[in-house]
Design brief:
The complex is a heterodimer of chains A (294) and B (282). Chain A is mainly α. Chain A has a single domain (62-287), classed as MetI-like (MetI-like fold, Orthogonal Bundle), CATH 1.10.3720. Helices cover 70% and strands 2% of the residues of chain A. In chain A, a hairpin with a 6-residue loop joins strand 1 and strand 2. Chain B folds into two domains: 5-75 and 224-280, no CATH class; 82-205, MetI-like (MetI-like fold), CATH 1.10.3720.10. Chain B contains 15 helices and no strands. Chain B is globular and about 75 Å long. Classes of the chains: A mainly alpha (294), B mainly alpha (282).
């Protein structure tokens, strides 16, 4: 798309674009192309010789049981977070959408956790679920559950799902509420006149009409769970105990930054780029309103 | 329509439970920041405020030195985070408004190519290119510098997309009138396009401030000395492995200090925040 009336100028537009293009080239495209290039190379252990190995790095990454394990952890984690976040956010949004007293106050009180860093959410929930001093941690131990997120992989996973979801609900709540408020009142009134129950109204009218929002949030939450929860994992579990909370993102950080295994880490980076690209593409499709309900 | 208090009761109940779920962890942090480390370490923290509020916060801000933690003054971290958040927000707004202006108001060779390039950065978040980006940073000598911490985060597609979208809605008549009056592109930008973008800039600033304040992976990679650290990283390092016998009172005081600025921004600038959030993600 382009405006009809524009300014004639040869040099100026390039100057205006220069800062952005310089930063994106140096810090985005150059490293990304390095990642792609390195993913096709293999270095000997002394870093003396490098040889071109085509897709061998990908092959060894994808056949590595540790990587498969990270894929499984990521899948369980991101699906849990997405489901947990969306269910609660939708419930709260449907409630806050009602014509009730204090609706604006509720909205403010449900919005602020958006402002929290994932790692801060992690510290807060780590304090609550601490096995010996945390309020809920002690409670669970009192119930005989032997709760300890530092020793039990399942407990660690539950904790990072709770901390991550808690932070993300506010964001989803806002978008669901906006979606619900854009449903034409006439449709809702017509359904009421026809005697639809609150559940039927939601199931047959509201939920189908906000399906583009739902789909959009699904992609956003996947991106969040894949990448932005790094802070939660790094702060609370460091990918453990064992590898119970090592997601793809945490693994690429460990292999590339901590263990410096460049070839395979580059291959992992390229795989992550493909995942992000798919999610962004889905996101833009959802924004064009191409998601229809049956 | 008359209110139906009884029918609305379950609705209020659910919302109140939601508000409590959201507020509970922060309430506990507030309580934790008013007791002493020993009491918390024994697992005997009460649910009501204790007597050490002033002492804990003063300690956290000025030295963060407790029985177990040999800390670093949290006020330094707070100041670092504030500088970083403002620099990223302002830098990103300037860079993206300029590039959006070029793309919306000029026609020039490679325009679509450059726009596509900016758009593609959406697919390359830092998380997917950690190791090579770190190498570029160290080659350029940007590790542990303020420029290294902020400049690479100033470019992204969202701001450019937002301003371009907005610039396309400025009526052609404005541009024609400005041309008739002899205004060039820079004059038009300064006197018309920029003032018209005020609310968009405010909305974007709120979102970007929070984005900058909450950065985690990037400062973790780039900062190597304590005096450069941001508050979020600082707290996580204070917590360490999260033993029972650590200075939880100081950790919780620092956590409260870390979350107050962005939460205040969201609450006080709620309208702009909502506008910004909905726009940047459209």
């Amino acid at each position: 798309m382009q405006r009809r009336v524009i300014f004639p100028n040869r040099l100026l537009p390039y100057l205006l674009l220069l800062p952005q293009l310089a930063i994106t080239t140096i810090f985005f495209f150059w490293p990304a192309s390095q990642a792609i290039y390195q993913s096709l190379l293999r270095q000997d252990p002394f870093g003396l010789r490098t040889k071109f190995v085509f897709l061998q790095n990908f092959q060894s990454v994808l056949s590595d049981p540790l990587y498969i394990e990270a894929i499984q952890v990521t899948a369980i984690f991101s699906v849990s977070v997405t489901l947990f976040v969306m269910t609660l956010a939708l419930l709260f949004a449907v409630m806050a959408d009602r014509q009730i007293r204090g609706a604006q106050a509720y909205k403010t009180l449900l919005l602020w956790p958006y402002a929290l860093a994932p790692a801060v959410a992690a510290v807060l929930w780590g304090f609550i679920f601490h096995p010996s001093i945390g309020i809920l941690g002690k409670l669970l131990n009192g119930l005989g559950l032997r709760w300890d997120y530092q020793l039990n992989g399942l407990h660690a996973l539950v904790l990072i799902v709770v901390a991550s979801s808690w932070k993300q609900i506010a964001h989803n709540f806002l978008f669901f509420l906006a979606g619900l408020q854009s449903v034409p009142p006439a449709i809702v009134e017509a359904a009421m006149i026809d005697g639809a129950s609150a559940w039927k109204l939601f199931r047959k009218i509201l939920f189908p009409l906000i399906s583009p929002t739902t789909f959009y949030l699904m992609t956003i939450n996947m991106v969040f769970a894949f990448f932005e929860t790094f802070g939660v994992i790094h702060a609370l579990t460091h990918g453990g105990p064992g590898r119970a909370t090592t997601t793809l993102m945490y693994k690429v950080y460990m292999d590339g930054y901590v263990n410096l295994n460049l070839g395979e880490s580059a291959a992992q980076s390229v795989i992550l780029m493909a995942i992000v690209s798919t999610l962004v593409w889905l996101q833009f499709r959802s924004m064009e309103g191409k998601v229809h309900y049956a | 329509m008359t209110a139906k208090p009884v029918r609305n009761l379950p609705v209020h109940l659910i919302l109140i439970v939601a508000v409590i779920i959201f507020a509970f962890p922060v309430y506990l942090a507030l309580i934790g920041s008013t007791w002493d480390a020993a009491r918390i370490g024994r697992g005997q923290m009460p649910l009501t405020p204790g007597p050490r509020l002033v002492e804990n916060y003063t300690n956290a801000l000025t030295s963060a030195r407790g029985g177990r933690i040999i800390g670093y003054p949290v006020q330094v971290f707070l100041w670092n985070s504030a500088k970083m958040a403002v620099a990223i927000a302002v830098g990103k707004i300037i860079i993206s408004i300029l590039s959006a202006y070029a793309i919306a108001f000029f026609r020039f060779p490679l325009r679509t190519f450059f726009f596509g390039m900016i758009f593609l950065t959406l697919m390359l978040p830092i998380e997917v290119r950690i190791a090579p980006t770190y190498k570029v940073m160290s080659d350029l000598g940007l590790i542990n510098t303020f420029a290294g911490l902020t400049v690479p985060l100033m470019a992204s597609a969202t701001g450019t997309l937002l301003f371009r979208q907005f610039f396309l809605t400025i009526p052609d008549e404005y541009v024609e009138a400005a041309k008739v009056d002899g205004a060039g592109p820079l004059r038009f930008f300064w006197s018309i396009a920029l003032p018209l973008s005020r609310t968009n800039i405010a909305a974007l600033f709120v979102i970007l401030f929070i984005y900058g304040w909450n950065q985690y992976l990037w400062p973790l990679l780039i900062t190597t000395s304590r005096e450069m650290e941001t508050i979020v990283i600082g707290i996580v390092k204070m917590m360490g492995t999260g033993e029972a016998q650590t200075d939880w009172n100081l950790i919780m005081a620092s956590t409260v200090l870390a979350l107050v600025p962005p939460v205040l921004v969201v609450i006080l600038m709620q309208q702009w925040f909502v506008k910004g959030l909905v726009q940047t993600e459209k």
